[in-house]
Design goal:
Helices cover 46% and strands 8% of the residues. With 474 residues, it is mostly helical. The protein has one domain: Orthogonal Bundle (Ribonucleotide Reductase, subunit A), CATH 1.10.620. The protein has a three-stranded antiparallel β-sheet with strand order 2-1-7. The longest helix is centred in the middle third of the chain and has 39 residues, at 228-266. Bound molecules: fe (ii) ion (2 copies).
Length: 474
């Protein structure tokens, strides 16, 4: 289970036993580093950052903490331990031994799944690359960089699969992953949410809460895969993902905490006056939440999808916690409720469960997302402030699937174009909201100091004090 750090590419897959593969990946490595230099965090190359690095894939104590210059981070290939006798647990091949090589008939689909997942990893690094210049504290700066290096490692995880199992096509895809750019007109990233900007730290925390959680659900579904190397890769990635969502949940929570403290101290609830006190008013936080939630649930894809059915039946991508579910794991005669638009109205209908797998995963995701929103509301309640954050209706602001054809208010009412236009500034962040949030973003890098709009965390990283020098400027 331990990781070989003496190889040029750290790994626990016995890379040196396959010289051709090792050479191919060593050829890709400098291209990756060039991408990191060009598209990784701005002005960060020389900083010493207190980062964790995986030392073992065992569930306990897998991380080592120490100062690292990010270009020297030991990105590598780490798979969760091999499980003897693992089976394909769902779909038409249910009961067969899990595949250690790519089944020929599923090659194109598997490649597509891996490339789509892989593309999101460098995309988020690109989206977040300017944030270091406006960090609210050293603690937050370190967390941003930790997320960034791990997204880089997730790219390595997918590139390993492409190189190891997909030959020349895989190597070409691995190069293309370094060529697409988030938000680029000509060569954008594959998925919509990964071409949006992450311009400020509230957006970053919402992104890591909502969009990294999409990552969790996709990885959970792929961790069920009958293709065992993909499953093992995703299982280890999930251990890293947990920290990203922690950064998001606590980051939003700390912004709310600070806002509530200031509202209380000045006995003020008018959003404009709250803003004048230098914190983010709660309605603006709600609008950011609405935006990031709605853009993220589009990532699950169309509510009715023949691709989703095919990926499942082929044993490539399972459901969330597939093996814990009590049914036949083939879903041939089952149905699932999806939203439909009929005569401009929102209703529900039964769809074949196989075709509704995207919707099912989206619903699992939404349930999980509600948890943190409840904890944010506890902070507001505790402060004695009368305000409640809510997840918008899942039909709100959708651009993918049948729901893209209608306008729906956050509370689920179908509205006219005119009503939408009249209210959109109350429902989604306006340019003015974003400009206000941007105006609060100034770089704070003195150990233990925090920007005025955000409360300090209750505990530091790796049991270090909150005023620890998490990043050293040289
Ligand atoms: Fe990731
Ligand atoms: Fe992540």
């Amino acid at each position: 289970m331990s990781i070989n750090y003496s190889d040029r590419i750290p790994n626990n897959v016995d890379l040196s036993a396959d010289k051709t593969l090792q050479r191919a990946l060593e050829h890709w490595q400098p291209h990756y580093l060039r991408w990191w230099q060009e598209m990784g965090p701005d002005e960060s190359q020389k900083l010493d950052v207190y980062l964790r690095t995986a030392v073992s894939v065992a569930p306990d104590g897998w991380a080592h903490f120490g100062y690292v210059k990010m270009p020297d981070y030991r990105w590598g290939i780490f798979l969760a331990p091999h499980e003897a006798d693992r089976k394909v647990n769902f779909g038409d091949h249910k009961g067969e031994p899990a595949w250690q090589e790519v089944p020929g008939e599923h090659r194109a689909n598997l490649r597509r799944i891996i490339v789509t997942q892989g593309d999101t990893e460098p995309a988020s690094v690109e989206q977040q690359r300017h944030l270091g210049l406006t960090c609210p504290s050293l603690y937050d700066l370190r967390n941003l960089f930790q997320v960034n290096v791990e997204e880089g490692r997730h790219l390595w995880a997918m590139v390993y699969l492409l190189h190891r199992f997909f030959g020349r096509d895989g190597r070409e895809e691995a190069e293309a992953l370094l060529e697409r750019r988030s938000g680029d007109q000509d060569n954008p990233r594959i998925l919509g949410a990964f071409n949006e900007k992450t311009p400020d730290w509230l957006a970053f925390f919402m992104f890591t809460y909502f969009t990294d959680r999409d990552g969790k659900y996709q990885l959970c579904a792929l961790a069920e895969s009958g293709f065992d190397p993909l499953s093992r890769t995703c299982r280890f990635m999930l251990t890293e993902e947990a920290h990203h969502m922690f950064v998001g949940e606590t980051g939003v929570g700390r912004a709310i905490q600070r806002t509530c403290e200031v509202m209380k101290a000045h006995n003020e609830s008018d959003p404009q006056k709250v803003r004048a006190l230098g914190v983010i008013d709660l309605p603006t936080i709600q609008r950011y939440l609405n935006f990031h939630f709605s853009v993220t649930i589009d990532l699950f894809g169309a509510d009715i999808s023949s691709n989703a059915a095919m990926f499942y039946s082929a044993g490539l991508k399972g459901r969330f916690e597939e093996t814990k579910l009590a049914d036949d794991h083939q879903l041939r005669n089952m149905s699932y409720q999806v939203l439909e638009v009929a005569d401009g109205r929102l209703g529900t209908k039964e769809a074949p469960a196989l075709n509704a797998l995207n919707e099912r995963l989206r619903d699992d995701y939404i349930k999980d997302s509600a948890g943190g929103v409840g904890r944010w509301n506890k902070i507001i309640q505790k402060a004695g402030i009368d305000f409640e954050l809510k997840l918008p209706h899942k039909a709100f602001n959708r651009r993918i699937g049948t729901l893209a054809s209608i306008k729906v208010a956050p509370d689920g009412r179908v509205v006219s174009e005119a009503e939408w236009a009249a209210n959109v500034r109350a429902w989604l962040p306006s340019d003015e909201d974003r400009a206000f949030v941007a105006s609060l973003m100034g770089r704070v890098v003195e150990p233990g100091k925090f920007a005025g709009w955000i409360a300090p965390p209750t505990i530091g990283i790796n049991k270090q004090p909150v005023n620890f020098e998490y990043v050293r400027f040289n």
